[in-house]
Amino acid sequence: MAKIKITQVKSIIDRSERQKRTMQALGLTKMNQSVEVEATDAIIGMVRKVNHLIAIERI
């Protein structure tokens, strides 16, 4: 599978609890923090739910 790099670019303050938990599940807890993950169907689904808070790059 392909890998993607996900970077948090916006704060999760004043976001719904569901979005906060999705960000935590992706491994993002701080601003400008990046993680590299496999692009599985589950990860892609989580990325779509919080795409307004993150930046995505293919590796």
Automatic annotation (TrEMBL):
The keyword Ribosomal protein applies. Pfam families: Ribosomal_L30. GO terms for biological process: translation. Signal peptide: none annotated. GO terms for molecular function: structural constituent of ribosome. Residues 4-54 form the Large ribosomal subunit protein uL30-like ferredoxin-like fold domain. Keywords: Ribonucleoprotein, Ribosomal protein. The keyword NADP does not apply. InterPro entries: Ribo_uL30_ferredoxin-like_sf, Ribosomal_uL30_bac-type, Ribosomal_uL30_CS, Ribosomal_uL30_ferredoxin-like. One of its GO terms (cellular component) is cytosolic large ribosomal subunit. It comes from the Bacteria. Belongs to the universal ribosomal protein uL30 family. NCBIfam families: rpmD_bact (TIGR01308). Part of the 50S ribosomal subunit. This is Large ribosomal subunit protein uL30.
